[in-house]
Write a structure and sequence with these properties.
The complex is a heterotetramer, with two copies of chain A (396 residues) and two copies of chain B (406 residues). With 396 residues, chain A is an alpha+beta fold. Helices cover 49% and strands 15% of the residues of chain A. Chain A has a four-stranded mixed β-sheet with strand order 1-4-5-8. A four-stranded antiparallel β-sheet of chain A has the order 2-3-7-6, with helices on one face. A two-stranded antiparallel sheet of chain A has the order 9-10. The longest helix of chain A is centred in the last third of the chain and has 37 residues. In chain B, α4 packs antiparallel against α6 and α8 packs antiparallel against α10. In chain B, β9 and β10 form a beta hairpin. Helix content of chain B is 49%, strand content 14%. Chain B folds into three domains: 115 residues, Orthogonal Bundle (Butyryl-Coa Dehydrogenase, subunit A, domain 1), CATH 1.10.540.10; 108 residues, Butyryl-CoA Dehydrogenase, subunit A, domain 2 (Beta Barrel), CATH 2.40.110; 153 residues, Butyryl-CoA Dehydrogenase, subunit A, domain 3 (Up-down Bundle), CATH 1.20.140. Classes of the chains: A alpha+beta (396), B alpha+beta (406). The interface between A and C is small, with 4 and 4 residues.
């Protein structure tokens, strides 16, 4: 009989090997020892130290799937899964998000599309955490709609001149460079907007003409810096072009898969973490003389949560499996993005209700997780955008 | 380089870390699909209209096709054990479009035969499993009672010792195949006064042609093609050899066999949800309203996207439970708590969902959705059993809560 | 201080006077004594006797708001509310629906738009129950979209000749006449379909060319006859035209308000009835040694039901109040139609879950109510159509 | 005749059978709206940014406007009692857009002053109600404790007799205005050993400048402009005259006064839901995505239609509860069960809904919905208190279940 158990899985039914589990331990220790104790303070500071990036790099957590020749660990995608899962124990959505932008959003296009020089100049120092990266897609007037970006690069003799602006850019205040989506020629059709004529650039943030217009004040993820950027006659050399001119839309579509997938992994991990907090509280807290977990309504609430978390995790793992094998699983990725974004906020909200007044109070970490998790249904393509993708793939 | 970037969405995959079906299973799928399409599906509408199907003919045909023996050893006429092969069969069986028919087949193969296989001795297997696999006799599983819906420990049917025999008295209800089964695996109290009520129950295989057995069919909202019924046992005398497994082991056997019941129900419901969604989309593409195909309206497109996502999620969990179950059956060291959670969660995730998909399928059909001539209403009625049968959704949550110490 | 209590209300906070309450008693007695005992049998027969119409007429229940000079009771709309509420106790959605078609769908346009002769010929015998009416709007290819009807009436020297078909017509198998929506001229724009050029007719069903193509087999409301009708060179006299030629769309839009409102009243009443059945069962049925109503999850389920029923009833009453005063409350009516259609099936479904296996069994009346109540989200304009109406009225 | 058929949709009505507001109230509404627009709304963004507002100035301005005395007799400086007038004020107060500000005003006028008015003697009213109505002092209501969230009978703050005085010890939390109130109506156990625990509780009015009282502000997810706090009482000595109502009557008083708390919360939440929906729609009409206004997408149009319908339903129930409450206050013979059900159902219908509307408002704003510079996020945070504060949704269901004998 055919076996459904991989030989090297350490737990039946799970995709992880011993190597992954040992990485899990290392990430968890870092998250619990070095992040969690500072999480509240960093939120209050509306900033966490750049040192976190360097420390993550030192520990090897920024290049888990990057080939060793660029300083990475050369692991498979399950290493990334492990990192994203365990980072939830750092209790800082802000740090998790910032690191995900660094390793799973802004830099994979460099590895995939970049020249050797670009890899040396940007990827290698990003893996060590010496350089901090951000990703520039969204614009003030083009939220979920990449095809409508207006930031333009004009060819000049010795490179390109970029004008425009970018919005909601995570790490944007502190980044050393930006992997940026720019229009290099008008779209073939209609109003000149559209998916054609878009290219990617690697832009150093210390260049003249690169401005951080403002640091945005967000309702959650407050330790993470989010910027509005503007570019005025920003001159970049020819070598700033990443990949093929005019292929940027396709390239960024590819990037978005990894972006959405890591956000989905993190969302499930966050939901699991919140479930555990709820479970713990339901055993400790008493009302009307008994633990609130003994009230059937709270018990069933927790089991509804456990079931949805359990189910969502399995679809995420299936999508990870495809991504790990190099498939372009746009359907599964859109599904897990949609599903887990809703899951994570729903779980946070249910756990808040379980905590009652204490859930609403800033004395307990529930309300912060609740605020943080709400971003998922907006960032990386809203729920509505994911539904558009899925329904189009169904031929609708 | 970007020029080589292939963004063709993938549609199916078989990986190394999350394996499930092997190539041999996909081959089996093709023949299961052909069997269902040729032997069963063509008759379904007529059978459903008559609320009946020719029992012996159908069971024998399915048995002769080898579909009842996939999970069982060759020694008894099976071709397994291969639960994955049987899972493929269950997925394809959904294409009959008749949950009632599938329920009768399932109550026989996934419940009654399973109990005999797992808990019976060779004599039981010779007498019930071998002809059962061939489709020559039809079995049922009798646990639920009128006064004890989901409360297995609360059953009151009892067997008292009389010499070497046992004499059984009581009533069972909501028993699939109960109205026409040849034999039934019956849960009864053999020691009603036991201090540990979990040791009070034993299982018997009881022939329904014995004096004192009465069978009656139930009329239900859905599953109208099934032969779900109630049975009365008035001083039914059976020999000691009719007992399945050890005396007092009934509760434990039932708990252990719940795993496959839940997995098989989850496979059925998640697959039915997928088929129903496909039917809804097909109708929405063809039917026009306000001068456009219904499928072109954004609210329907997004609703379909949501349903597809929820189905994918529930199926992923179902496959996880199936993986654990198969690993457990094939001698791997599976954490029993993980197995119990996965199977209960899978059932909880799939049953209500399958109904909700069917409900949207009715809705997209508009007035036609309410008409008996379209199958949408049947899928909708049939699917509603899921959150009730085989342990209600509420019971699943109670079971799960226990695994978390709540 | 201003008083919020009407002087003649018999219960504080309720809109009913003593007169209404006495009517309520009469309807309830009829429903409980003469309908409920036969309901199961009629469902099995897929028919209820025509006598029910005549008995309802005899009791005065078919002309509650019709002026006395046409044989009615000359009451206000709250009488209709009372009738619809109490009919729920007849446990026959089929009978409730058939009577509602007679008194609140097919005949109000006669009273509002008809000539004196039409009132004498159709309204008066409908109030007594001697003539049974049906309403012909929907067509096989125009479900929720009145503007797209294709049944046509061609002017001839001595009247009109009608060709076409109608679908899902309640009372259509047994009706003596049909209040019918027919296209009398092509619409002004586009493909000739559209809201203009539509008129109403009163058509006798015994005329040559009027065919009951088939009696439809429905999943619920099975004692009610639903027909597909077809018309082949059906000749009607000039006097068959109801109201003004070409004004039919407006007239039927008006009619739909009363149709939706009575369906909403019935839906809430049905939901209330189901809630009471659930409450009763939750006290009687035991599981694990105690009444299932003592389990918190079932308790909260019932209270969720009670709350939603309670809230929906209040909006229905507000809409009834407007209708009673002659307002064209299209927004409120669409809202109550949408809300109560969802409510009534949701309640039936929750009560089914409470009943468990017995809810699914035909031994108990729950599954029939469940099937019956599902029609509301489809008939009289689907949920989706109501949302279109409401959003358009919000300027969207 | 058809030609005369007027199909103009109506938008507002005042009928004979379902009356609520009278003309005088609509006149009052205009002046309330102007007051809010001129005196409060212009400062809200600055106050919210500072998480503080000038207590004395605001309370006195509102008091001088007459808005704190609508429910109370002219004898004490009020203009009522007219609960409907106060309902109009509450509806208009929502236009500040700051639930935290409104909460502080409400805790004073709808809770603290209400208790003094209904349960106090003339001496209490002279000392607390009159200056309270003028906005010269600020009150709070102290019931909830760290260890007893929704369980009033489970409070542990206690007062022991010492000569003619009472000495109070304990802790209260989640007390709106608790961080800065001048006085507080405090629920304490005066007879902790009482056989009937419902007779164990008494109310006191306690000045917060007495020795042994500590006040501390709480930081919360929302209501950040409110001065919700916790209070400690260490051997706080009060005279016997500080007792409000009879000894042991506290539980009953609290239960009776819950009616207005729930009605006022329901008015606030249903009105806030309506305002928030309007803001969401306004944004959706203006903001473009994929080249069209967001409001033109069918999924958003239908979502708005659903929300509008749910708001209308919840508001209809709220008005019903308000009608019953007013009838009860004006000497009509209102069934107490009907009143209790209507008020609990109204709270249950409105609070979660108001949050869900706010959540959709955030969603329609996309990335901007997450930004502090837009008020959407504040409405969303603020609205989340509703299903928790004033008795959670779960507690409402428990209360309702009792009225049905469950």
């Amino acid at each position: 009989m055919h076996t459904v158990v991989p030989d090297d899985a350490v737990r039946i039914g799970e995709p992880f090997t011993e190597e992954h589990e040992s990485l899990r331990g290392a990430v968890r220790r870092w998250a619990e020892d070095e992040i969690a104790p500072n999480a509240e303070q960093w939120e209050a500071d509306e900033w966490f130290p750049d040192e976190v990036f360097r420390r993550a790099g030192e520990l090897g957590f920024l290049g888990l799937t990057v080939p060793e020749r660029y300083g990475g660990q050369g692991g498979d995608y399950w290493s990334t899964v492990v990192r994203a899962e365990e980072l939830a124990r750092g209790r800082s959505g802000s740090v998790s998000m910032a690191l995900a932008v660094q390793s799973d959003m802004a830099t994979p296009p460099i590895l995939k599309f970049g020249t050797e020089q670009q890899k040396q100049d940007y990827l290698v120092p990003s893996v060590t955490g010496e350089k901090i990266a951000c990703l520039g897609i969204t614009e003030p007037e083009a939220g979920s709609d990449v095809a409508r970006i207006r930031t333009r690069a004009q060819r000049v003799s010795d490179g390109w001149v970029i004008n425009g602006s970018k919005m909601f850019i995570t790490n944007g205040v502190r980044a050393d460079y930006c992997t940026m989506v720019v229009r290099t020629s008008p779209a073939d059709e209609g109003d000149g907007l559209g998916w054609s004529g878009i290219s990617l650039f690697l832009v150093d943030t210390d260049l003249d003409g690169f401005h951080v217009s403002r640091k945005l004040d967000k309702v959650g993820m407050r330790a993470s810096d989010t910027a509005e950027l503007s570019f005025t006659d920003l001159h970049v050399p020819d070598t700033a072009l990443l990949g093929t001119e005019g292929q940027g839309f396709k390239q960024i579509m590819w990037e978005l898969q990894g972006e959405r997938l890591i956000s989905a992994i993190g969302a499930v991990a966050g939901a699991q973490f919140m479930f555990e907090r709820g479970l713990e509280y339901s055993r400790q807290r008493h009302a009307f003389g008994r633990p609130i977990g003994s009230f059937q309504v709270q018990k069933h609430r927790l089991m509804d949560i456990a079931t949805r978390v359990g189910a969502s995790r399995r679809l995420v793992y299936e999508a990870c499996d495809r991504w790990n094998r190099g498939e372009y699983a746009i359907n599964e990725v859109a599904m897990v993005k949609l599903d887990t974004a809703q899951l994570s906020f729903w779980v946070a909200d249910e756990v808040m209700q379980l905590f009652g007044g204490y859930g609403y109070s800033q004395e307990f970490p529930i309300e912060r997780a609740w605020r943080d998790s709400r971003l998922m249904r907006i960032g990386g393509g809203t729920d509505e955008v994911q539904r558009e993708i899925i329904s189009k793939l169904m031929g609708l | 380089m970007a020029a080589d970037l292939d963004l063709t969405p993938t549609t199916a995959a078989q990986g190394t870390r999350l394996p499930l079906y092997a190539e041999e299973h996909e081959a089996l799928r093709a023949s299961a699909r052909a069997f269902v399409a040729n032997e069963l599906a063509p008759h379904v509408e007529a059978w459903e209209a008559a609320e009946d199907f020719p029992r012996d003919e159908v069971f024998r045909t399915v048995g002769a096709g080898g579909w009842l023996g996939l999970k069982f050893d060759e020694r008894w006429g099976g071709s397994g054990p291969d639960y994955l092969a049987h899972a493929v069969w269950l997925e394809e069986l959904v294409r009959t479009g008749s949950a009632g028919l599938n329920a009768d087949l399932g109550a026989h193969a996934d419940l009654a035969l399973l109990y005999v296989d797992r808990n019976g001795d060779d004599q039981h297997k010779e007498r019930y499993l071998r002809p059962g696999i061939a489709g020559e006799t039809v079995g049922a599983l009798g646990i639920t009672e009128p006064g004890a819906g989901s409360d297995v420990a609360g059953i009151t049917t009892r067997a008292r010792r009389d010499g070497d025999d046992w004499v059984i008295t009581g009533e069972k209800t909501f028993i699939t195949n109960g109205a026409w089964c040849d034999w039934i695996v019956l849960a009864v109290k053999t020691d009603p006064e036991a201090a540990d009520q979990h040791r009070a129950i034993s299982l018997f295989v009881v022939d329904t042609d014995l004096p004192g057995v009465q069978q009656q069919r139930l009329k239900m909202l859905g599953w109208r093609l099934s032969h779900t019924g109630q049975l009365r046992f008035d001083d039914v005398r059976v020999p000691a050899s009719a007992m399945l497994g050890a005396e007092g082991s009934g509760f434990l056997q039932i708990m252990q066999n719940f795993a496959w019941e839940r997995v098989s129900m989850s496979i059925g419901a998640s697959t039915a949800a997928q088929r129903t969604l496909e039917a809804a989309i097909a109708y929405a593409k063809e039917r026009h309203a306000f001068g456009r195909p219904i499928a072109s309206f954004q609210v329907w497109r997004h609703r379909f996207a949501d349903l597809a996502t929820r189905i994918a999620t529930a199926r992923a969990l179902t496959y996880h439970a199936l993986r654990l179950h198969v690993a457990n059956e094939t001698g791997h060291d599976v954490d029993p708590i993980a197995l119990m959670r996965a199977t209960a969660m899978a059932k909880l995730s799939t049953q209500r969902l399958a109904f909700e998909v069917a409900d949207e399928c009715v809705q997209v059909h508009g007035g036609y959705g309410y008409m008996m001539e379209y199958p949408a209403q049947r899928w909708w009625r049939d699917a509603r059993l899921g959150p009730i049968g085989g342990g209600t959704d509420e019971i699943m949550k109670e079971i799960l809560a226990k695994t978390y110490g709540l």
